[in-house]
Amino acid sequence: MKVISVPSTPFPGQKPGTSGLRKKVTVFRQARYLENFVQAIFDTLSGQQGKTLVLGGDGRYYNDVAIQTILRMAAAAGFGRVLVGRDGILSTPAASAVIRKRQAFGGIILSASHNPGGEDGDFGIKYNLANGGPANEGFTEAVYQRTREIRAYHTVEAPDIDLGRIGELRIGDLVVSVIDPVADYAELLESLFDFERIAGLLARPDFRMRFDAMHAVNGPYAHEILERRLGAPAGTVVNGTPLPDFGGGHPDPNPVYAAELVAALADSRSGLSFGAASDGDGDRNMIVGRAFVVSPSDSLAVIAANHALIPGYAGGLAGVARSMPTSCAVDRVARELGIPCYETPTGWKYFGSLLDAGKATICGEESSGTGSSHVREKDGLWAVLYWLNILAVRDTPADVIVRQHWQHFGRNVYSRHDYEGIETGPADRLMDGLRSRLPQLAGSLVKDMRIATADDFAYTDPVDGSRSERQGIRILLDDGSRVVFRLSGTGTEGATLRVYLERFVADPGCHEVPTQEALAPLIGLAEGVAQIAALTGRKGPDVIS
To answer: Does the pLDDT of residue 492 top 60, yes or no?
Structure first.
């Protein structure tokens, strides 16, 4: 096997964001662009000779080409084996499960998660460590520095591998194992949940569910687990074939982009009792009851509160963790359970050290991501099965379960307003302006609301002591309400401003007040403090979730 060194020069801006490097497909298709970044990953690693790499993605446009390129580069880098999902498919949580079960050296996941796909859409790549979780900031920063100085990438001459058939092939000394992308993951989930009881629920004539895979990676997983292993009727899974452009849709499971599912659950004629959806790479979820969308923050709290009903968690939780913008609903559950609740920056990598150290069992982010110590990624189907297990045991509709939770713990009324594709200049000026005014905001009165404290969230990891600064601006009112401002790190062009709004309501008589109505004073405060319209030209958010 002859290794070929191909001269190259650095590309600007190959700095990984919250979860890997994400750019437009047109950017990745530039000659040497993908190769430079992959080579930077391999150059940052040490000890990979003869070891196993896991490789796969969400099936979006350009995945197939990228996988063949990476296989040849992995052979040149000295890996002994690459485990790649059949047809190049591996959901993000499944990739984590495979890395952990097969004790792989690490993995490369090709996905831009919930971002749109297609020839003019988005593409992404990230490296996961041997624990199955996303690489930490130290590693990604080293990769970025390497991209700025790279002068060549290394590959071998070899024809494309047939990824459509399970089996072993070779590229020189490298063994390429094409594996069933679902088997290891399904086996893991079966060890956590009461499949017999869930199957009984799905067989009941008075219970019908719909799972919308959004033409994304979880289609094959849902067909196998929900319809084949659990016996849900054929047709339970819709939009179940992964497509390179996600069928022209936006594979983000929220009430805007999964409006058809929400409408079906609101229509009594549909006969549906329960609905769920997942995103492009299968790590996010949306839970829908009859005419009732469960907010991700409430879902996390309900999951934690009902852990004793689930076989894999009945022994108790070591702790829970949430990202800072996620509502404080799960904090109240943790207090009642007498377990710690950790508040981290946004990004699943921050949960990894807590999970590895045994400090947390269940984690969640408000952006539709929940998961546990079974893998080191958030996990869409895991959350759906968790809810189905709760429904099967409690024999209570999802909307009633949430309302009963509010009765017991109070309701954290919560919403996120997204302003997408803002020019980076105005977005940065907005955030910088807020930071400069933080000392004046604390203790001030805005629209008859008293601001108790205002800060720029910083986090010190309780396990390794690492420090993360400038993770989002928090405005906390004296009644416990919160407004949080943050620029998202998952987009590929411009900036997405996320404004998180939260108000605690203890009085059950006020729990049914519509969310945006209940939050109207905070919405006005956010606009007044940040001057969103004046600085961005936007009259309102693009997405409300």
So the answer is: no
